[in-house]
Design a protein that fits this description.
The chain has 12 helices and 14 strands. The chain is α/β, with parallel strands linked by helices. The structure holds S-adenosylmethionine.
Length: about 300
C-alpha cells in the first residue's frame, strides 16, 4: 500500500474493500494526484483554438468528449486563457453529469446545488447560451465563486439564486425540462486532489449527508415537468449517499423511471445491489459508479431519472 493510502482512516479503507471489486488498482489510483484537465468553453472558443493556445502545456484531447482536454504540464490556472474564460479548469469526472443529463438549447434547466459552477457553466455552454439555467446554492461564501465563474465564462442564460434547494422548489414545482442535483456529500472521491477531505470523514457525516441528499433529490424530482429528466450525482463512494438515496427516491415515487447511465468511451461500473444487508430497488441497477482507475479521474456516482408524462 502506498504511504498516502496508509494515512486514510482504517474504517474508510475497510468500507472501500467491501464495495470496490478490484481494491488494489483502486487504492493505488486514489493515492496518486489527479490528471490536470480543462474543458473548452464553447461559448467563447473552439477545441482547435484551445489546442493551439495551450500547446506548450501539452494538451491531449480525451476520447470520450471532444471538449475535454488533459494537460501534460502545470500552470493553466495562471494563463490568460483561464482568466478570459476560454477554458474552464474542471476535473474530468465532473464533466460527466451534465453530459449524461444532456441539456439542449432553449430548455429550462435547474442546477440545484450549483456552486462554484463547473457544471452550471458546462450546461450553459451545451445549451449554446440560450434557454434558462437557474443556478442555485445555499452557501453565501460559495456563491461568490459561482458568480465569478458564470461571468468569466460569458454565460448569458444563467440566473443565480441563493436558497435551500428544498425551499426553492416548493415555490417552483413542475417547471423544468432538466434538473441537476449535484449533491453536497462527504467528497470521498476527491482524495486524489486533497487527502484533507478525509479529516472530516466519519460515519455520522455520511448519515447526515444522506438525510440532506434525500431531501434534495426529492426536491429535484418535484421540479421536473412531466417528461423531464434529472441527474443525481455525488463525488463520493458511500452507498448511503448514492444507491440508498436513489432507492429512497424510487420507493417514494414508484412511477419514476430510472434510465441507464451511459457515456460512450467512458468506463463506468455497476452500482451496489445491496449494502449493510439492505437490498436496493431493482431500478437502482441502472445507476453507475465512476472509479478512479478506469479513466484516471476522481470517483463519482450518477443516477438518471425521468418523470413520466402521466406523472401524478
Ligand atoms: C458538490 S457541491 C456542487 C458543485 C457544483 N455542482 C459544481 O459542479 O461546481 C454541493 C453544493 O451544494 C450546496 N448545498 C448544500 N446544502 C444545500 C441546500 N440545502 N440547498 C442547496 N444547495 C446546498 C453546497 O453549498 C455546495 O456548493
Amino acid at each position: 500500500m502506498t504511504r498516502r493510502a496508509a494515512e486514510f482512516p482504517g474504517r474508510f479503507l475497510d468500507r472501500c474493500r467491501a464495495m470496490v471489486p478490484d481494491f488494489e488498482p483502486f487504492i493505488d489510483s486514489m493515492s496518486r494526484p489527479p490528471r490536470r484537465t480543462v474543458r473548452v468553453n464553447t461559448i467563447k472558443a473552439n477545441r482547435e483554438q484551445v489546442l493551439g493556445w495551450l500547446r506548450n502545456l501539452d494538451p491531449q484531447p480525451l476520447d470520450w468528449w471532444e471538449n475535454a482536454l488533459a494537460l501534460g504540464q502545470p500552470g493553466v490556472g495562471k494563463r490568460l486563457e483561464h482568466f478570459l474564460g476560454l477554458v474552464y479548469v474542471q476535473e474530468a469526472a465532473s464533466m460527466v453529469p451534465p453530459l449524461v443529463l444532456g441539456a439542449e438549447p432553449g430548455e429550462t434547466v435547474l442546477d440545484l446545488c450549483a456552486a462554484p459552477g463547473s457544471k452550471t457553466t458546462q450546461l450553459a455552454a451545451m445549451m449554446e447560451n440560450t434557454g434558462l439555467v437557474v443556478a442555485n446554492d445555499y452557501s453565501q461564501a460559495r456563491l461568490r465563486g459561482l458568480v465569478g465563474n458564470v461571468d468569466r465564462a460569458g454565460c448569458l442564460n444563467v440566473v443565480i439564486t441563493r436558497m435551500d434547494g428544498v425551499a426553492l422548489v416548493r415555490n417552483w414545482p413542475g417547471s423544468c425540462d432538466r434538473v441537476l442535483v449535484d449533491a453536497p456529500c462527504t467528497c470521498e472521491g476527491t482524495v486524489r486532489r486533497s487527502a484533507r477531505v478525509l479529516d472530516q470523514w466519519s460515519l455520522d457525516a455520511i448519515a447526515r449527508f444522506s438525510q440532506l441528499q434525500k431531501g434534495l433529490a426529492v426536491a429535484g424530482y418535484h421540479a421536473l415537468k412531466p417528461g423531464g429528466t434529472m441527474v443525481y450525482s455525488t463525488c463520493t463512494l458511500a452507498p448511503e449517499e448514492n444507491e440508498e438515496v436513489v432507492d429512497y427516491l424510487a420507493r417514494r415515487f414508484p412511477e419514476a423511471e430510472l434510465l441507464p447511465v451511459e457515456l460512450p468511451g467512458f468506463r463506468m461500473r455497476q452500482p451496489l445491489a445491496e449494502w449493510n444487508g439492505r437490498r436496493f430497488a431493482t431500478g437502482v441497477a441502472n445507476c453507475r459508479r465512476i472509479l478512479p482507475q478506469d479513466n484516471d479521474t476522481e470517483a463519482f456516482f450518477l443516477a438518471l431519472i425521468r418523470r413520466p408524462i402521466e406523472a401524478r
